[in-house]
Protein backbone atom coordinates (compact mmCIF):
# COMPACT_ATOMS: atom_id res chain seq x y z
CA UNK A 1 0.00 0.00 0.00
CA UNK A 2 2.60 2.46 1.17
CA UNK A 3 4.93 1.75 -1.74
CA UNK A 4 2.15 2.14 -4.27
CA UNK A 5 1.35 5.45 -2.61
CA UNK A 6 5.00 6.53 -2.79
CA UNK A 7 5.46 5.68 -6.43
CA UNK A 8 2.25 7.37 -7.48
CA UNK A 9 2.72 10.63 -5.66
CA UNK A 10 6.50 10.85 -5.77
CA UNK A 11 9.04 11.01 -2.99
CA UNK A 12 8.89 14.76 -2.18
CA UNK A 13 5.20 14.54 -1.25
CA UNK A 14 5.83 11.50 0.98
CA UNK A 15 8.70 13.35 2.62
CA UNK A 16 6.58 16.36 3.34
CA UNK A 17 3.93 14.11 4.92
CA UNK A 18 6.69 12.56 7.02
CA UNK A 19 7.95 15.99 7.99
CA UNK A 20 4.44 16.94 9.03
CA UNK A 21 4.13 13.78 11.13
CA UNK A 22 7.49 14.45 12.74
CA UNK A 23 6.41 18.00 13.51
CA UNK A 24 3.19 16.74 15.06
CA UNK A 25 4.48 13.71 16.93
CA UNK A 26 8.14 14.55 17.49
CA UNK A 27 11.04 12.74 15.84
CA UNK A 28 10.39 8.96 15.80
CA UNK A 29 13.56 8.07 17.73
CA UNK A 30 13.57 10.73 20.43
CA UNK A 31 11.67 9.59 23.44
CA UNK A 32 8.45 11.07 24.67
CA UNK A 33 9.89 10.63 28.18
CA UNK A 34 12.93 12.92 27.79
CA UNK A 35 13.20 14.84 31.05
CA UNK A 36 15.82 17.01 32.75
CA UNK A 37 16.59 13.99 34.97
CA UNK A 38 17.54 11.90 31.94
CA UNK A 39 19.37 14.77 30.25
CA UNK A 40 21.56 15.60 33.25
CA UNK A 41 22.11 12.07 34.54
CA UNK A 42 22.60 10.71 31.03
CA UNK A 43 25.56 13.04 30.57
CA UNK A 44 27.17 12.14 33.90
CA UNK A 45 30.10 9.74 33.92
CA UNK A 46 30.00 6.79 36.34
CA UNK A 47 27.53 6.25 39.14
CA UNK A 48 25.14 9.11 38.28
CA UNK A 49 24.86 8.07 34.62
CA UNK A 50 24.64 4.29 35.02
CA UNK A 51 20.92 4.20 35.98
CA UNK A 52 19.91 5.85 32.69
CA UNK A 53 21.49 3.13 30.54
CA UNK A 54 20.08 0.40 32.75
CA UNK A 55 16.59 1.88 32.75
CA UNK A 56 16.51 2.13 28.94
CA UNK A 57 14.72 -0.90 27.55
CA UNK A 58 13.37 -1.86 30.98
CA UNK A 59 9.73 -2.79 31.46
CA UNK A 60 9.31 0.48 33.33
CA UNK A 61 10.51 2.57 30.41
CA UNK A 62 8.23 0.54 28.11
CA UNK A 63 5.30 1.44 30.34
CA UNK A 64 6.17 5.10 30.70
CA UNK A 65 7.56 4.89 34.25
CA UNK A 66 10.48 7.31 34.37
CA UNK A 67 13.04 8.49 36.95
CA UNK A 68 10.69 10.98 38.63
CA UNK A 69 7.88 8.40 38.90
CA UNK A 70 10.09 6.41 41.26
CA UNK A 71 12.32 9.09 42.79
CA UNK A 72 9.95 12.04 42.69
CA UNK A 73 11.18 15.54 41.83
CA UNK A 74 10.40 17.92 38.99
CA UNK A 75 11.20 16.43 35.57
CA UNK A 76 10.88 19.81 33.79
CA UNK A 77 12.95 22.15 35.96
CA UNK A 78 16.71 21.45 35.78
CA UNK A 79 17.50 23.79 38.67
CA UNK A 80 14.96 22.50 41.20
CA UNK A 81 14.63 18.97 39.84
CA UNK A 82 15.93 17.31 42.99
CA UNK A 83 14.36 19.65 45.51
CA UNK A 84 12.36 17.92 48.27
CA UNK A 85 9.91 20.80 47.89
CA UNK A 86 9.19 19.40 44.41
CA UNK A 87 8.57 15.93 45.80
CA UNK A 88 12.08 14.51 45.39
CA UNK A 89 12.53 11.51 47.69
CA UNK A 90 15.96 10.35 46.49
CA UNK A 91 17.12 6.75 46.50
CA UNK A 92 15.59 4.39 49.08
CA UNK A 93 17.63 2.60 51.70
CA UNK A 94 17.38 -1.17 51.78
CA UNK A 95 14.65 -1.01 54.43
CA UNK A 96 12.64 1.58 52.51
CA UNK A 97 12.73 -0.33 49.23
CA UNK A 98 9.58 -2.50 49.56
CA UNK A 99 7.45 0.55 50.40
CA UNK A 100 9.18 2.51 47.59
CA UNK A 101 8.23 -0.09 44.96
CA UNK A 102 5.00 -0.92 46.77
CA UNK A 103 3.50 2.50 46.02
CA UNK A 104 2.60 0.99 42.65
CA UNK A 105 2.85 -2.76 43.28
CA UNK A 106 0.52 -2.69 46.26
CA UNK A 107 -0.63 -6.31 46.50
CA UNK A 108 2.84 -7.67 45.94
CA UNK A 109 4.36 -5.49 48.64
CA UNK A 110 1.66 -6.73 51.03
CA UNK A 111 2.41 -10.37 50.24
CA UNK A 112 6.12 -9.72 50.56
CA UNK A 113 5.86 -7.99 53.94
CA UNK A 114 3.86 -10.92 55.33
CA UNK A 115 6.42 -13.43 54.06
CA UNK A 116 9.54 -14.81 55.72
CA UNK A 117 11.51 -12.51 53.38
CA UNK A 118 9.58 -9.43 54.48
CA UNK A 119 10.02 -10.36 58.12
CA UNK A 120 13.77 -10.63 57.56
CA UNK A 121 13.90 -7.18 55.90
CA UNK A 122 17.02 -5.43 57.16
CA UNK A 123 18.32 -8.57 58.85
CA UNK A 124 19.47 -10.60 55.85
CA UNK A 125 16.26 -11.00 53.84
CA UNK A 126 16.13 -10.02 50.15
CA UNK A 127 14.26 -6.90 48.99
CA UNK A 128 12.52 -6.31 45.66
CA UNK A 129 15.77 -5.20 44.03
CA UNK A 130 17.67 -8.34 45.13
CA UNK A 131 15.44 -10.31 42.75
CA UNK A 132 14.33 -7.71 40.17
CA UNK A 133 17.09 -5.08 40.15
CA UNK A 134 16.30 -1.40 40.51
CA UNK A 135 16.78 0.05 36.99
CA UNK A 136 17.13 -2.89 34.60
CA UNK A 137 13.80 -4.41 35.68
CA UNK A 138 12.38 -6.84 33.11
CA UNK A 139 9.13 -8.80 32.88
CA UNK A 140 9.08 -11.28 35.76
CA UNK A 141 9.44 -14.96 34.94
CA UNK A 142 10.11 -18.10 36.94
CA UNK A 143 13.73 -17.94 35.71
CA UNK A 144 14.29 -15.50 38.57
CA UNK A 145 14.12 -18.57 40.81
CA UNK A 146 17.51 -20.18 40.29
CA UNK A 147 20.19 -21.76 42.40
CA UNK A 148 22.60 -18.83 42.10
CA UNK A 149 20.16 -16.32 43.51
CA UNK A 150 18.03 -18.44 45.80
CA UNK A 151 20.93 -20.50 47.11
CA UNK A 152 22.83 -17.38 48.13
CA UNK A 153 21.35 -17.07 51.65
CA UNK A 154 19.86 -20.52 52.33
CA UNK A 155 19.58 -23.94 50.72
CA UNK A 156 17.87 -24.09 47.34
CA UNK A 157 15.47 -26.92 48.28
CA UNK A 158 12.36 -24.91 49.23
CA UNK A 159 12.87 -22.56 46.29
CA UNK A 160 13.11 -25.58 43.96
CA UNK A 161 9.81 -26.98 45.31
CA UNK A 162 8.09 -23.65 44.62
CA UNK A 163 9.59 -23.44 41.16
CA UNK A 164 8.59 -27.00 40.31
CA UNK A 165 4.94 -26.53 41.31
CA UNK A 166 4.73 -23.19 39.52
CA UNK A 167 6.46 -24.39 36.34
CA UNK A 168 3.97 -27.23 35.91
CA UNK A 169 1.03 -24.90 36.42
CA UNK A 170 2.45 -22.29 34.06
CA UNK A 171 2.94 -24.90 31.32
CA UNK A 172 -0.70 -25.93 31.67
CA UNK A 173 -1.86 -22.32 31.45
CA UNK A 174 0.19 -21.83 28.29
CA UNK A 175 -1.20 -25.03 26.73
CA UNK A 176 -4.82 -24.09 27.37
CA UNK A 177 -4.20 -20.54 26.21
CA UNK A 178 -2.92 -21.91 22.89
CA UNK A 179 -5.97 -24.19 22.49
CA UNK A 180 -8.38 -21.35 23.19
CA UNK A 181 -6.68 -19.19 20.57
CA UNK A 182 -6.92 -21.98 18.01
CA UNK A 183 -10.63 -22.55 18.67
CA UNK A 184 -11.26 -18.82 18.62
CA UNK A 185 -9.59 -18.67 15.22
CA UNK A 186 -12.09 -21.29 14.06
CA UNK A 187 -14.97 -19.12 15.21
CA UNK A 188 -15.83 -20.99 18.41
CA UNK A 189 -17.25 -18.81 21.20
CA UNK A 190 -14.55 -19.14 23.89
CA UNK A 191 -15.50 -16.10 26.00
CA UNK A 192 -16.37 -17.85 29.26
CA UNK A 193 -13.28 -20.08 29.07
CA UNK A 194 -11.06 -17.08 28.40
CA UNK A 195 -12.46 -15.34 31.46
CA UNK A 196 -11.93 -18.38 33.69
CA UNK A 197 -8.37 -18.72 32.42
CA UNK A 198 -7.67 -15.03 32.98
CA UNK A 199 -8.89 -15.23 36.59
CA UNK A 200 -6.87 -18.37 37.27
CA UNK A 201 -3.75 -16.84 35.77
CA UNK A 202 -4.13 -13.81 38.03
CA UNK A 203 -4.48 -15.97 41.12
CA UNK A 204 -1.47 -17.93 39.96
CA UNK A 205 0.68 -14.84 39.41
CA UNK A 206 -0.15 -13.68 42.92
CA UNK A 207 1.30 -16.87 44.46
CA UNK A 208 5.02 -16.26 44.61
CA UNK A 209 5.82 -13.45 47.03
CA UNK A 210 4.45 -15.14 50.13
CA UNK A 211 7.13 -17.83 49.48
CA UNK A 212 5.02 -20.29 51.46
CA UNK A 213 6.02 -23.64 49.96
CA UNK A 214 2.96 -25.52 51.25
CA UNK A 215 0.56 -22.80 50.14
CA UNK A 216 2.13 -22.61 46.67
CA UNK A 217 1.93 -26.38 46.26
CA UNK A 218 -1.69 -26.55 47.44
CA UNK A 219 -2.87 -23.56 45.43
CA UNK A 220 -0.99 -24.70 42.32
CA UNK A 221 -2.68 -28.09 42.69
CA UNK A 222 -6.10 -26.48 43.02
CA UNK A 223 -5.47 -24.22 40.03
CA UNK A 224 -4.36 -27.22 37.95
CA UNK A 225 -7.60 -29.02 38.82
CA UNK A 226 -9.61 -26.06 37.58
CA UNK A 227 -7.41 -25.84 34.49
CA UNK A 228 -8.15 -29.51 33.76
CA UNK A 229 -11.86 -28.71 33.88
CA UNK A 230 -11.40 -25.96 31.29
CA UNK A 231 -9.28 -28.31 29.21
CA UNK A 232 -12.02 -30.95 29.25
CA UNK A 233 -14.68 -28.48 28.23
CA UNK A 234 -12.44 -27.50 25.31
CA UNK A 235 -12.08 -31.17 24.38
CA UNK A 236 -15.87 -31.27 23.94
CA UNK A 237 -15.52 -28.71 21.17
CA UNK A 238 -13.03 -31.02 19.52
CA UNK A 239 -15.44 -33.93 19.80
CA UNK A 240 -18.25 -31.85 18.40
CA UNK A 241 -15.94 -30.85 15.57
CA UNK A 242 -15.11 -34.50 14.84
CA UNK A 243 -18.81 -35.30 14.86
CA UNK A 244 -19.59 -32.48 12.50
CA UNK A 245 -16.85 -33.69 10.19
CA UNK A 246 -18.25 -37.23 10.31
CA UNK A 247 -21.81 -36.10 9.61
CA UNK A 248 -20.51 -33.86 6.84
CA UNK A 249 -18.75 -36.82 5.29
CA UNK A 250 -21.92 -38.91 5.55
CA UNK A 251 -23.99 -36.24 3.83
CA UNK A 252 -21.44 -35.84 1.03
CA UNK A 253 -21.31 -39.62 0.63
CA UNK A 254 -25.10 -39.84 0.49
CA UNK A 255 -25.28 -37.06 -2.11
CA UNK A 256 -22.66 -38.78 -4.25
CA UNK A 257 -24.56 -42.05 -4.02
CA UNK A 258 -27.80 -40.31 -4.97
CA UNK A 259 -26.11 -38.67 -7.94
CA UNK A 260 -24.66 -41.97 -9.07
CA UNK A 261 -28.01 -43.67 -8.58
CA UNK A 262 -29.93 -41.07 -10.59
CA UNK A 263 -27.26 -41.22 -13.30
CA UNK A 264 -27.66 -45.00 -13.54
CA UNK A 265 -31.44 -44.64 -13.44
CA UNK A 266 -31.33 -42.12 -16.29
CA UNK A 267 -29.09 -44.49 -18.30
CA UNK A 268 -31.44 -47.48 -17.89
CA UNK A 269 -34.42 -45.24 -18.68
CA UNK A 270 -32.77 -44.12 -21.92
C1 LIG B 1 21.49 19.33 36.56
C2 LIG B 1 21.81 17.96 36.83
C3 LIG B 1 20.78 17.07 37.51
C4 LIG B 1 19.44 17.01 37.30
C5 LIG B 1 18.58 17.88 36.38
C6 LIG B 1 18.95 15.91 38.10
N1 LIG B 1 19.97 15.35 38.80
FE1 LIG B 1 19.82 13.78 40.09
N2 LIG B 1 21.76 14.04 40.66
C7 LIG B 1 22.64 14.93 40.07
C8 LIG B 1 23.93 14.82 40.74
C9 LIG B 1 25.18 15.62 40.37
C10 LIG B 1 23.77 13.81 41.72
C11 LIG B 1 24.85 13.29 42.66
C12 LIG B 1 25.15 14.26 43.77
C13 LIG B 1 24.21 14.13 44.90
O1 LIG B 1 24.00 12.98 45.37
O2 LIG B 1 23.67 15.13 45.34
C14 LIG B 1 22.40 13.36 41.64
C15 LIG B 1 21.85 12.38 42.46
C16 LIG B 1 20.62 11.79 42.25
C17 LIG B 1 20.11 10.64 42.96
C18 LIG B 1 20.81 9.89 44.07
C19 LIG B 1 20.49 10.55 45.36
C20 LIG B 1 20.85 9.69 46.53
O3 LIG B 1 20.09 9.77 47.51
O4 LIG B 1 21.83 8.95 46.47
C21 LIG B 1 18.89 10.37 42.46
C22 LIG B 1 17.97 9.24 42.87
C23 LIG B 1 18.61 11.35 41.43
N3 LIG B 1 19.68 12.20 41.32
C24 LIG B 1 17.46 11.40 40.70
C25 LIG B 1 17.12 12.49 39.90
C26 LIG B 1 15.79 12.69 39.35
C27 LIG B 1 14.59 11.78 39.55
C28 LIG B 1 15.83 13.86 38.63
C29 LIG B 1 14.69 14.54 37.90
C30 LIG B 1 13.48 14.84 38.67
C31 LIG B 1 17.18 14.34 38.72
N4 LIG B 1 17.92 13.50 39.50
C32 LIG B 1 17.63 15.50 38.11
C33 LIG B 1 22.35 15.77 39.03
C34 LIG B 1 21.11 16.03 38.48
C1 LIG C 1 11.39 1.47 39.23
C2 LIG C 1 11.88 2.54 40.04
C3 LIG C 1 13.07 3.33 39.60
C4 LIG C 1 13.20 4.04 38.42
C5 LIG C 1 12.22 4.15 37.28
C6 LIG C 1 14.47 4.70 38.49
N1 LIG C 1 15.10 4.38 39.67
FE1 LIG C 1 16.86 5.13 40.33
N2 LIG C 1 16.83 3.89 41.93
C7 LIG C 1 15.80 3.06 42.26
C8 LIG C 1 16.14 2.32 43.46
C9 LIG C 1 15.29 1.26 44.16
C10 LIG C 1 17.43 2.77 43.85
C11 LIG C 1 18.24 2.34 45.08
C12 LIG C 1 19.49 1.63 44.69
C13 LIG C 1 19.33 0.16 44.73
O1 LIG C 1 18.72 -0.35 45.67
O2 LIG C 1 19.81 -0.51 43.79
C14 LIG C 1 17.82 3.77 42.87
C15 LIG C 1 19.03 4.49 42.92
C16 LIG C 1 19.34 5.53 42.06
C17 LIG C 1 20.53 6.36 42.17
C18 LIG C 1 21.61 6.22 43.21
C19 LIG C 1 22.59 5.24 42.64
C20 LIG C 1 23.54 4.71 43.60
O3 LIG C 1 24.32 3.85 43.14
O4 LIG C 1 23.52 5.09 44.78
C21 LIG C 1 20.50 7.26 41.15
C22 LIG C 1 21.52 8.32 40.82
C23 LIG C 1 19.30 6.99 40.39
N3 LIG C 1 18.63 5.94 40.97
C24 LIG C 1 18.92 7.69 39.27
C25 LIG C 1 17.88 7.33 38.45
C26 LIG C 1 17.62 7.92 37.16
C27 LIG C 1 18.44 9.03 36.52
C28 LIG C 1 16.52 7.31 36.65
C29 LIG C 1 15.88 7.51 35.30
C30 LIG C 1 16.69 7.16 34.16
C31 LIG C 1 16.08 6.34 37.64
N4 LIG C 1 16.93 6.37 38.70
C32 LIG C 1 14.95 5.55 37.50
C33 LIG C 1 14.61 2.92 41.58
C34 LIG C 1 14.29 3.52 40.35
C1 LIG D 1 13.04 -13.62 46.41
C2 LIG D 1 12.88 -12.97 45.14
C3 LIG D 1 11.82 -11.91 44.97
C4 LIG D 1 11.58 -10.82 45.79
C5 LIG D 1 12.25 -10.47 47.11
C6 LIG D 1 10.55 -10.06 45.13
N1 LIG D 1 10.18 -10.67 43.97
FE1 LIG D 1 8.80 -10.01 42.64
N2 LIG D 1 8.89 -11.76 41.62
C7 LIG D 1 9.80 -12.78 41.88
C8 LIG D 1 9.50 -13.90 41.01
C9 LIG D 1 10.23 -15.24 40.98
C10 LIG D 1 8.39 -13.51 40.20
C11 LIG D 1 7.73 -14.31 39.08
C12 LIG D 1 6.51 -15.03 39.60
C13 LIG D 1 5.70 -15.61 38.47
O1 LIG D 1 6.17 -15.73 37.34
O2 LIG D 1 4.53 -15.92 38.73
C14 LIG D 1 8.04 -12.15 40.61
C15 LIG D 1 7.03 -11.40 40.05
C16 LIG D 1 6.86 -10.03 40.28
C17 LIG D 1 5.97 -9.16 39.55
C18 LIG D 1 5.04 -9.57 38.43
C19 LIG D 1 3.77 -10.09 39.07
C20 LIG D 1 2.61 -10.24 38.13
O3 LIG D 1 1.47 -10.03 38.58
O4 LIG D 1 2.81 -10.55 36.97
C21 LIG D 1 6.11 -7.90 40.09
C22 LIG D 1 5.39 -6.65 39.65
C23 LIG D 1 7.05 -8.00 41.18
N3 LIG D 1 7.48 -9.30 41.27
C24 LIG D 1 7.43 -6.95 42.00
C25 LIG D 1 8.08 -7.13 43.22
C26 LIG D 1 8.14 -6.11 44.27
C27 LIG D 1 7.54 -4.73 44.20
C28 LIG D 1 8.83 -6.66 45.30
C29 LIG D 1 9.13 -6.05 46.66
C30 LIG D 1 7.98 -5.65 47.48
C31 LIG D 1 9.24 -8.00 44.89
N4 LIG D 1 8.72 -8.25 43.63
C32 LIG D 1 10.02 -8.88 45.63
C33 LIG D 1 10.81 -12.74 42.81
C34 LIG D 1 10.91 -11.81 43.84
C1 LIG E 1 5.35 4.68 39.72
C2 LIG E 1 4.87 3.32 39.71
C3 LIG E 1 5.88 2.19 39.82
C4 LIG E 1 6.89 2.06 40.74
C5 LIG E 1 7.28 3.01 41.88
C6 LIG E 1 7.50 0.78 40.47
N1 LIG E 1 6.87 0.17 39.42
FE1 LIG E 1 7.24 -1.69 38.67
N2 LIG E 1 5.89 -1.41 37.20
C7 LIG E 1 5.08 -0.32 37.08
C8 LIG E 1 4.28 -0.46 35.87
C9 LIG E 1 3.23 0.53 35.37
C10 LIG E 1 4.65 -1.69 35.28
C11 LIG E 1 4.14 -2.28 33.98
C12 LIG E 1 2.76 -2.85 34.13
C13 LIG E 1 2.79 -4.10 34.93
O1 LIG E 1 3.34 -5.10 34.46
O2 LIG E 1 2.31 -4.07 36.08
C14 LIG E 1 5.64 -2.27 36.16
C15 LIG E 1 6.22 -3.52 35.95
C16 LIG E 1 7.08 -4.13 36.84
C17 LIG E 1 7.55 -5.49 36.73
C18 LIG E 1 7.20 -6.50 35.64
C19 LIG E 1 5.84 -7.09 35.92
C20 LIG E 1 5.46 -8.21 34.97
O3 LIG E 1 4.34 -8.17 34.47
O4 LIG E 1 6.27 -9.11 34.74
C21 LIG E 1 8.38 -5.73 37.78
C22 LIG E 1 9.12 -7.01 38.09
C23 LIG E 1 8.43 -4.49 38.55
N3 LIG E 1 7.62 -3.55 37.96
C24 LIG E 1 9.21 -4.32 39.68
C25 LIG E 1 9.36 -3.12 40.36
C26 LIG E 1 10.34 -2.86 41.40
C27 LIG E 1 11.34 -3.87 41.90
C28 LIG E 1 10.16 -1.58 41.80
C29 LIG E 1 10.97 -0.80 42.82
C30 LIG E 1 12.40 -0.73 42.57
C31 LIG E 1 9.07 -1.02 41.02
N4 LIG E 1 8.62 -1.97 40.15
C32 LIG E 1 8.56 0.27 41.17
C33 LIG E 1 5.02 0.74 37.93
C34 LIG E 1 5.88 0.99 38.99
C1 LIG F 1 19.39 -12.03 50.63
C2 LIG F 1 19.14 -13.36 51.16
C3 LIG F 1 18.06 -14.21 50.52
C4 LIG F 1 17.87 -14.47 49.18
C5 LIG F 1 18.68 -13.96 48.00
C6 LIG F 1 16.74 -15.37 49.10
N1 LIG F 1 16.26 -15.64 50.36
FE1 LIG F 1 14.73 -16.88 50.83
N2 LIG F 1 14.98 -16.47 52.80
C7 LIG F 1 15.90 -15.59 53.34
C8 LIG F 1 15.73 -15.50 54.77
C9 LIG F 1 16.57 -14.66 55.72
C10 LIG F 1 14.66 -16.37 55.10
C11 LIG F 1 14.06 -16.64 56.49
C12 LIG F 1 14.89 -17.66 57.23
C13 LIG F 1 14.77 -19.01 56.60
O1 LIG F 1 13.66 -19.55 56.58
O2 LIG F 1 15.77 -19.50 56.09
C14 LIG F 1 14.22 -16.98 53.83
C15 LIG F 1 13.21 -17.92 53.72
C16 LIG F 1 12.79 -18.50 52.53
C17 LIG F 1 11.77 -19.52 52.43
C18 LIG F 1 11.00 -20.16 53.57
C19 LIG F 1 9.72 -19.44 53.81
C20 LIG F 1 8.93 -20.01 54.97
O3 LIG F 1 7.87 -19.43 55.24
O4 LIG F 1 9.37 -20.97 55.55
C21 LIG F 1 11.59 -19.79 51.10
C22 LIG F 1 10.64 -20.78 50.47
C23 LIG F 1 12.52 -18.93 50.37
N3 LIG F 1 13.25 -18.16 51.28
C24 LIG F 1 12.61 -18.89 49.00
C25 LIG F 1 13.51 -18.09 48.30
C26 LIG F 1 13.56 -18.01 46.88
C27 LIG F 1 12.62 -18.73 45.93
C28 LIG F 1 14.58 -17.18 46.56
C29 LIG F 1 15.07 -16.78 45.20
C30 LIG F 1 14.10 -16.24 44.24
C31 LIG F 1 15.16 -16.72 47.81
N4 LIG F 1 14.48 -17.29 48.84
C32 LIG F 1 16.24 -15.85 47.90
C33 LIG F 1 16.87 -14.91 52.63
C34 LIG F 1 17.04 -14.95 51.26
From TrEMBL:
Keywords noted in UniProt: Membrane, Signal, Transmembrane, Transmembrane helix
- TM spans, by residue? 246-265
Name under which the protein is recorded: Cytochrome C
Signal sequence coordinates? 1-32
Alphabetized InterPro entries for the sequence: Multihaem_cyt_sf (IPR036280), Multiheme_Cytochr_ET (IPR051829)
Q: Which GO terms describe its molecular function?
A: oxidoreductase activity
Amino acid sequence: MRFAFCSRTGVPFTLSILALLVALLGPPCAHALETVCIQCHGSQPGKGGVPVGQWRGSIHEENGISCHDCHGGDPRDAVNAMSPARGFIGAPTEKQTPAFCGRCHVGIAEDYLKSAHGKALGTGGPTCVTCHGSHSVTAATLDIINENRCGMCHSYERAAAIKDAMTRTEAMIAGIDAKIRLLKGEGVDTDSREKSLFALRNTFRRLFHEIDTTHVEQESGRIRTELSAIDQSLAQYDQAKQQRKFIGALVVGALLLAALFSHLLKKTWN
